[in-house]
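User: Some background: our group keeps a shared notebook of sequences we're curious about, and every so often someone picks one and asks for a predicted structure to add to the entry. Today it's my turn. The entry only has the sequence so far, pasted here. Could you supply the structure so I can complete it?
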Amino acid sequence: MTLAVSKYLNLKKIIYTFVFCFSSTFVLFLMLFGCATSDFDVKNITWKTYNNSRYGFEFPYPSNWSSLKAPENNDGIVFVSPQNKSVEIRGWASKQLLESIIQDPKTRTNKNSNFQTAQGISGVLVVEINQKLASMTLTLTQGQVNYYWQGRSESQEFQDYYRFFYYIAQQYRILKS
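Assistant: Of course. Here's the predicted structure to add to the notebook entry:
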């Protein structure tokens, strides 16, 4: 292979990498910018509060949303939008297994908190977007209990629900026992 061909192939690789990275970043920017422009206003919604007596947590949900059948063990609930059945909010909790049983200490990862509820509890908030579904999941840990809250919708509609989901995640409360 000549030096000119080698330089050409390297340049082609650099251009391809730049275009791929730029287009991925641009798409992410558009999605997040779209999330910031939603017309969600907390005052325009009549709220109810779901309270879980087994694990002692609560979060608000719109009063016109309906719940799916709760599991028999009462570990959580799912609410669905009356306008769009693919839009859900859910909350649940579970007791932690001993870390030595579920995970090798060499592979254990520690997720740093990146979110704080209005109650002042720190946790991890993760947004995942794939081709069909998008979700926002909050994970809080208190003692030996993991608390979870999730809002999800179809990916193309997620920007319309982002601020709504974020507000509910902020209002999630762990009740003092």
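Suggested note for the entry: Confidence is low (pLDDT under 50) at residues 19-37, 104-109. The chain has two domains: 1-37, 42-174.
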